[in-house]
Predict the 3D structure of the following.
Amino acid sequence: MKLWGQMLWGHLSGLRGRQGGIWGWACSTWQSHQPQAGPLSASGLVKHWTAVFEKRGIPEARESSEYIVAHVLGAKTFQSLRPVLWTQPLTAQQLQGIQELCNLRLQRMPVQYILGEWDFQGLTLKMAPPVFIPRPETEELIEWILEEVAQRPQAVGAQGSPLILEVGCGSGAIALSLLSQLPESQVIAVDKKEAAISLTRENAQRLRLQGRIQTILLDVTIEDSWTHLLPWGPMDLIVSNPPYVFHKDMEQLAPEIRSYEDSVALDGGEKGMDIISHILTLAPQLLKASGSIFLEVDPRHPELVSSWLQSRPDLCLGLVAVRKDFCGRHVAGPKDHGGGKLLTSWQPGNGESKEGSGDNSYLPEAPSEHITFN
Amino acid sequence: MPLMSTWGWFRSPELLARICTKTQGFGLQEKLALLSPGMAAFMVQIAGKKDFPALLPLNENELEEQSVKGHGPGGQATNKTNNCVVLKHVPSGIVVKCHQTRSVNQNRKLARKILQEKVDVFYNGEKSAVYKERQEAQKKKQERKKRAKETLEKKKVLKELWESSKNVSEERTADSDRMYCTAYKE
């Protein structure tokens, strides 16, 4: 029996295609006992749940089922799983786990809350409703800040060990990714919600960054609340992804967002400017003369901010740069990537479409922008 | 694709860059003219000067990045989890799709790294650093296998020697055993 097994193994490891004779037969018999991507394999389950989600109108049907199945198998993405695991049958425990998580998705829970974690700038962060889930666009904000700090440290007031204030830290995504990539930096992270402060603290501890971050429960819209931050000294940088959704747009948000994420983290008031204007008001009191503010905002904001600053010359702030993130406008086109998704193409830096086919119509409006002041 | 016919030619990074920028807006005919046979010798000379050429750097202007996004606004107003990055190197037509992580930023960086290696192999063929690294790794693996096999053989020989020396000493002590051994030989 052992000899048979050895010969079979030796044959199969060098196998490129069918070979004739008895070994060919032995090989095919062995293979016929292997469920090639059967219904109870990872691939089979992804296929099954994709269909279920599509039928129930769940957005990102394939992506959702892929992330859930990969997660239960211990991987972050389906593509990163060892291919051999795609076709092996899953255990009863794994099947049950997938079932439970997929049921949550049927209730429109965001994938990040279902998995209880998500990645941002190379860090894995715990996610918990209703704390705001970091968006991929915000990773661009981090990249921009890192570039500025590296290239022109004097422009951001940072000399070796920048002191950074983050307003509205949420899960700690911005604060912790800056800490991890600027080893000498220190962060003061504030948020008006206890759940956010708690989650930021937990993520800081998980990443062993708790020694360089100070979390403070604080509502910057309350008059003079920022004075509590004075003892920590003038800051080099103020950074924020503040609530900037226009109030009238709130009801159009997807159920994933409306039902599970804290609306306070999103609603920026009538023109989405409420928190932004408060940050700009407190900034001169807390920033070093050479410091900078980095914000993520709605595309309609740079103009609004510009005119708002003009009405407040006492603040001595100037809008220095506006940078579109890499997400271009969404275009309709003949290309369809399964699941009915639309394809967008852009060139990093200017948001312009490079799609050659004439069928695409391009609207030059970026979904979010990053602005810097000093 | 016309450039495919030149696969295997050795090109220096400088020439490659020059060709690419000049051919922007050129038709296919012009591209072929630039890569005339007369240039081959020149190219080989330059390539031959280095044993391990550094990986060809990617020019962002020659890259086209795609992502799957839905309708409507982005940023806070949406929660998209599809962070797959598709990156195309326009001059060579090589496309890389990366969905290794859940961070779109990481996927973009990884896609560029993978694309850089593929482009390097595409233009430098056997002279590419990537190809050479793989060859080195394969060679080391083969050497290790060979050594392991040799060790196994040595152990086998030693074991046989041990066994046969044992048999000899047993023959001297047990008559019945000796008779069995004799019978077996016959």
In short: Helices of chain B lie at 13-23, 28-34, 38-49, 104-124, 129-173, 175-185.
